[in-house]
Amino acid sequence: MKKWSSLALAVTLGAVLTLSGCGGNNKNAGTEATAGTNAAATTAPESSPDAAASTQDTLILGRGGDSASLDPAIVTDGESLKIAHQVFDSLLEYKPGTSEVQPSLADSWEVSADGLTYTFKLHPGVKFHDGTDFDAEAVVFNFTRWSDPASEFKFEGDSFDYYDSMFGPDGSRVIKEVKAVDATTVQFTLNQPQAPFLQNIAMTSFGIASPTAIKEKKENFKNEPVGTGPFVFTEWKHNDSITLDKNPNYWKEGLPKLNKVIVRSIPDNSARFNALQNGEIDLMEDLSPDDLSTLEGNTELQKIERPPFNVAYLGFNFNKKPFDNVKVRQALNYAVNKQAIIDAFFSGQATAAVNPMPPSLWGYNDAVKDYEYDLDKAKALLAEAGYPDGLPDTVTLYAMPVSRPYMPDGKKVAEAIQADWEKIGVKTVIESPEWATYLDDTKAGEKDDIYMLGWTGDNGDPDNFLYTLLDKDAIPGNNRSFYVNEELHTILINAQKETDQAKRSDLYKQAQEIIKADAPWIPLVHTTPLLAAKANLKGYVPGPTGTEYYSEIYFE
Amino acid sequence: MNSYLLKRVMVLIPVLIGMTIIVFSIIHAIPGDPAETILGQKATEQSKQALREQLGLDKPWLQQYFNYMGDLLQGDLGTSIRTKTPIAEEIMPYLAATLELTAASMLFATIVGVNAGILSAWRQNSWFDYTAMIIALIGVSMPIFWLGLMEQLLFALKLHWLPSIGRMDQRNPVESITNLYIIDTIIAGQWGQLWTVIKHLILPSIALGTIPMAIIARMTRSSMLEVMNSDYIRTAKAKGMSQFLVVYKHALKNALIPVLTVVGLQTGALLGGAVLTETIFAWPGVGRYIFEAISARDYPVIQTGILIIAFIFVVINLLVDLLYAAVDPRINYK
Q1: A185-190 β-sheet, strand order
Q2: Beta carbons of B253 and A2 less than 8 Å apart
Q3: Ranges for the Solute-binding protein family domain (chain A) (predicted)?
């Protein structure tokens, strides 16, 4: 045995010596290099455009994280909904690239005059991936599953959060009843009118699942989803990849154009970009602004911009003095140089934010003027507030420890703002605890004076920005400023009940004026999230809410 | 020998229990509400509260600990809060991925490290000795993160020799049986795919194996130098034995014993160090599994994951100790 091991070592020694070239034999390395390139040319067809490109029908997408679950009803995270969006259809959907509602599983709908009854005509002949029929009963089954707290199909640990937040929690449900009139007609009766009702129905979370599959698979449905969508779920390797195959019987003619979609989780942005350049993936999400110039220098790749549908902001903590003083908040608003921040940290892929919602959203108030960068005005306001020499205490500024689509590098931006504020006599200390702690702390509002955060819209309605983030009802929760304005509250509640969009739009415009004057936030930027793809990838329409249809994608 | 083995195994039990207590208290000392992180910013307060109750997070942590241990003793490793899947079911593919990567890294580290160490000792103060030890010094201090990205840049992006991420070519996937793809492809007899899998292993295992490689090289060198100066080697040389035989037959056997310890310790350390490598190379291993669980405050996964790694670590140490006896009969366990 001992002889054997010595021999083995001797052999491996020889192997290592040959392989390593024993400390840098250049001639040897040179020949290996040529051999390597030849090998690469034959084994990597994606690097030779004419060989594979014309026939490519598999898309490999690289993204930063994995899905938590594939049942869209029980999740709220974008990564989960992204996949569900390909497997499930909702009654309505958003027109690609917009937040406008258009028919999907429901061909048409009628609203009663009082706004309490919605009657949907369903597309006939649609089948779920398991071969069962999609009909009005299936719609009723799904909505009952989400609304009935005692549903036997609400499995352990599940909560239907989006249903609760869009249609009210148990006890104050918006939807009173869902009824199948006949096989292709389904009727919703509401307890009270809800303006964004159709907008809500179109959300991916309300994708219609196969009742048969839920009954059979039970808990496991979240790992093996069955819908009517363009792609059929095939395999999920956790933290690695999700494979979707073409639904050959998809009810929309000629779709999907791809045969297979593989979604890979590649957490590191640089590694993901490396993989794209190396041809291992075809499309990547969340390109770092820093890599933009490399991308633009590569003719084999293209840049894709997702429409800005988010806001990054600094919020004042009203529980802390002197930030309950509007003059102090306005002064600090005047002392942030947004354009300099955009130029330095966003490679220009952002616009300065004036209001708490993006300009692309209806109801946006163009008339609101921003507090422009003006240190003299800032100093004057501080003096008026009783702080002629700047703030006496050091301010704790919470800067985000993680990269988000609306804020790639929170700490650097915070440092820039820190330097600006220093000039008006406001000293800050930047704190950046780990993300879960960060969210906890800002929600409790005890440690931070000013915090940085952001939001990406879910459903293309101003309510999802203004009410969700700044109404007094959102305390504790998303209103981490503890900002309470009764007048604003009345307007936002009225806007929720109003069904005339023009009137709603006016209400939201008023709301933005009030918010601007109160300055509970310093709105920073609306970013344009960047994606990168192979140059020959076509038909990808980035959606503002971050959910896209892969059915239209093809390779040239 | 058998009673020694028994004793060693018995010692593992208090070690592992101590481990659970430490892990459990550290996790609960970290601020951050799991309900908030799991359900996200967009969930309602009611559902967060419901989740806390359902997970027992509103109970005192001592009670939570005993509940957890009770389940563990019944063979229930817990259920992930985030994915709502039993951990025992979920962790196997991750574990396999990490084991494959760790094994490849240690193979690389040991073969290169041991041989570089031997050669350095054999040709002490030669140019090879100096070069190797300088490389070893750089190797020990190399940040894995940086090394990984540089490897990708050079070998994947510039030279196109090797793939930069993942465990296999997704366009031509490997069918998993054991989740150890090397073994899976051999079982299936798919030699082309075996080569692809090996190619995917090369860059991450070099990144992960560089530090242990350097440590092993230095250890081997000093251990060899010591042995080479001993009387019996001088005798062997005096008898006119060939250099190669003296080094590889006589000296190595004794020099390897301390090296073995280092190899064992480093293998354990790799399990923990794998998280960076797994992130850079999108390697779906247990390091990333635990890392993501920490970000999501997925308590059961953190606990069980760390416990499993600790278990593997102590088992490796046990194996090393047992190997001593096999290599060196002078070691007596009485």
Answers
A1: A106-111, A117-122, A185-190, A175-182
A2: yes
A3: 100-473
